[in-house]
């Protein structure tokens, strides 16, 4: 009998089609979860799995998890390049309690991770965090809702400890958490770039959006926020520098009804604002900090009125180009 | 068939009865509703979902969620806890309102956050009613909803799309990506009552169409405060698009928004000290009266498009951008 070695192309075809190779539970490029699924399955289309974690473990690196129907799919720790995708089949939820984390990303330095259409909610009982990024190349969060996390209480916490990582959050709501809504952070010398677009951050008991490295971190953190709203938080948008420089560009966005609208804390922190609105806050904007004043500057086209510190101070202007 | 929405009183009585009569079934963190396989005799878990929002609500632990499984009408619900009701694209999750009832009534605790997503609430006449009636709670978040055709006697408090009352302390209403249309009285109304109360209102990507009032912010029932911001929103075809009434503690920031084809685009009136409306990067056009103030302050950032209205478009006084 002749032994045939399949070519790479032939081997790839069954993967693309979602067929599984010979062993009972080999990993496949696309896995499926269903609330009627079972984690005893191999997660293919006819026999989907029940939880994100089982599907993740069954998915090849660079693969996808496809949500088939509405349900709760549990917490997951991600350790590879993967996408978890709910494209409108109904709620794909993860409830968080007991100090846990809804979605933890602990991926290799070259891994891109994508989350779409997920709803993460804290249900008390010790609370926890919504989405925590520890390592990886990038994390993309689209069309998600992260709310009601208590105790630890972070909605989205992005805090790599080495290399360069990036965060994208779009069309996402982060609300009612007992700590910061979105915290873009870093340990050590890690550098972070983040873009938030079409994001709503409401009624968190910490900062709505916080750009701030952990104590002693030296890497730069750059955050751009566009077409977003931060309302009802302790502070709307904050850049805080410990050692590394931290910058926050606020474009076409709103800070409303926070205690502090916009805050640049410490001398390495810079906030730039254009076509943005600061209103209904107790203090419109501040640049005070323990290690010296941060920098808040304006393109001269912001609406800064109706705050508790009226007549509000006019931030120093920088030219549009 | 007409579904009569129960009155709050009746709902409260039913709620009080629900628990003692049903001791066997424990509450769940996540419950499910289905129009296909649901039954209110079930425990509302995934395999045996319930049929109505109210039964699912009563079976859900505080801070839990109700997940909609398939399209259907799920009936009126009175919410008394921190909860989310979520339809993320399975088809219409509807509530029909009649008989002077309320589609979704919120009587939650002072620390409770309530979230509604992907719901369609429609009045079907027969006495009309109100769409969403917030009576108590820390916050209400309305996303991706449609609330329309609520009718009834405005003198008896009917015909509201969303009615947001603050009886004590401070409560927050956030509405995004939502349509509020064809209601007999007010699309979205906020009333802080008594003294020392604050209504925080934020609308983002909201369309207010063909109501009597699109948005009404009114402090006159008490001496409270309204802090409202409207962004990327449209009021079209209302008798009054954006209406602010009361005293200097009422304020509206209208940003990157549109008032068109209303009787009045923006209307501000203060019987006491003047409320304040600020408008930036917005468009007022096609209204009989673009903007009107009586005992109120309206200021423009000088970057609005105010043309094509019946009143010729007198420019408002300006304030400087910073």
Largest sheet of chain B: 19 strands, parallel
Largest interface: A-B, 53 and 51 residues
Q: Which geometry of chain A do the CA atoms define?
A: elongated
Low-confidence stretches of chain A: 1-23
Q: Given the structure, what is the number of helices of chain A?
A: 2
What's the rounded overall pLDDT mean of chain A? 93
Q: Major β-sheet of chain A, in short? A: 19 strands, parallel
Average pLDDT over all residues of chain B: 92
SSE string of chain A, helices as H and strands as E: HEHEEEEEEEEEEEEEEEEEEEEEEEEEEE
> Overall 3D geometry of chain B?
elongated
- The termini of chain B sit apart by 57 Å
What portion of the residues of chain B fall into strands of 2 or more residues? over 45%
- The N- to C-terminal Cα distance of chain A equals 74 Å
Number of continuous helical runs of chain B: 2
Strand content of chain A: over 45%
Rg of chain A is 22 Å
* Residue share in helix of chain B: under 10%
Structural category of chain A: mainly beta
């Amino acid at each position: 009998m002749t032994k045939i070695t399949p070519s790479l192309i032939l081997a790839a075809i069954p993967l693309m089609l979602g067929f599984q190779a010979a062993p009972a539970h080999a990993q496949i490029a696309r896995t499926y979860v269903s609330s009627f699924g079972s984690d005893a399955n191999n997660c293919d289309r006819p026999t989907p799995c029940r939880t994100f974690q089982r599907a993740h473990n069954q998915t090849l690196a660079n693969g996808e998890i496809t949500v088939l129907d509405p349900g709760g799919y549990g917490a997951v720790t991600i350790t590879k390049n993967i996408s978890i995708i709910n494209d409108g089949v109904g709620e794909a939820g993860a409830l968080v309690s007991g100090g846990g984390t809804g979605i933890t990303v602990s991926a290799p330095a070259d891994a891109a991770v994508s989350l779409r259409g997920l709803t993460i909610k804290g249900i008390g009982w010790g609370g926890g965090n919504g989405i925590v990024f520890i390592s990886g190349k990038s994390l993309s969060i689209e069309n998600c809702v992260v709310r009601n996390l208590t105790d630890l209480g972070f909605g989205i916490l992005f805090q790599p400890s080495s290399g360069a990582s990036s965060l994208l959050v779009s069309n996402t709501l982060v609300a009612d958490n007992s700590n910061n809504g979105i915290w873009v952070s870093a340990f050590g010398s890690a550098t972070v770039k983040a873009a938030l677009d079409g994001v709503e951050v409401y009624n968190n008991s910490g900062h709505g959006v916080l750009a701030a490295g952990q104590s002693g971190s030296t890497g730069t953190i750059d955050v751009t926020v566009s077409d977003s709203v931060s309302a009802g938080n302790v502070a709307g948008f904050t850049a805080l520098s410990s050692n590394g420089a931290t910058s926050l560009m606020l474009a076409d966005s709103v800070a409303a009804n926070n205690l502090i609208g916009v805050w640049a804390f410490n001398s390495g922190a810079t906030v730039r604002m254009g076509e943005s609105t600061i209103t209904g806050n107790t203090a419109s904007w501040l640049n005070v900090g323990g290690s010296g004043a941060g920098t808040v500057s304006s393109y001269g086209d912001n609406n800064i009125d109706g705050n508790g510190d009226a007549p509000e101070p006019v931030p120093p202007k920088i030219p549009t180009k | 068939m007409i579904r009569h929405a129960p009155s709050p009183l009746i709902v409260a009585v039913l709620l009080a009865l629900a628990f003692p009569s049903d001791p066997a079934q424990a509450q769940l963190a996540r419950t499910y509703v289905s129009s296909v396989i649901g039954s209110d005799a079930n425990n509302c878990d995934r395999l045996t979902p319930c049929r109505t929002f109210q039964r699912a609500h009563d079976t859900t632990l505080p801070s839990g969620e109700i997940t909609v499984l398939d399209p259907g009408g799920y009936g009126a619900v009175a919410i008394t806890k921190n909860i989310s009701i979520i339809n993320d694209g399975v088809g219409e999750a509807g509530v029909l309102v009649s008989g002077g009832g309320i589609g979704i009534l919120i009587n939650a605790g002072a620390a409770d956050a309530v979230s509604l997503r992907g719901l369609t609430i429609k009045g079907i006449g027969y006495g009309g009613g109100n769409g969403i009636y917030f009576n108590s709670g820390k916050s209400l978040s309305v996303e991706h909803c449609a609330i329309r055709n609520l009718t009834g006697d405005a003198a008896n408090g009917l015909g509201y799309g969303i009615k947001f009352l603050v009886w004590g302390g401070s409560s927050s209403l956030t509405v995004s990506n939502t349509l509020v249309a064809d209601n007999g009285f007010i699309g979205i109304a906020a009333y802080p009552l008594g003294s020392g109360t604050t209504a925080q209102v934020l609308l983002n990507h909201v369309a207010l169409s063909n109501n009597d009032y699109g948005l009404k912010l009114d402090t006159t029932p008490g001496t409270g405060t309204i802090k409202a911001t409207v962004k990327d929103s449209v009021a079209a075809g209302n008798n009054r698009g954006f209406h602010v009434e009361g005293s200097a503690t009422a304020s509206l920031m209208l940003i990157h928004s549109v008032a068109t084809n209303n009787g009045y685009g923006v209307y501000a009136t203060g019987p006491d000290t003047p409320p304040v409306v600020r408008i930036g990067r917005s468009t007022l056009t096609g209204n009989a009266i673009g903007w009107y103030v009586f005992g109120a302050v309206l200021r423009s950032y000088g970057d609005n498009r105010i043309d094509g209205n019946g009143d010729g478009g007198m420019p408002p006084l300006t304030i400087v951008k910073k």
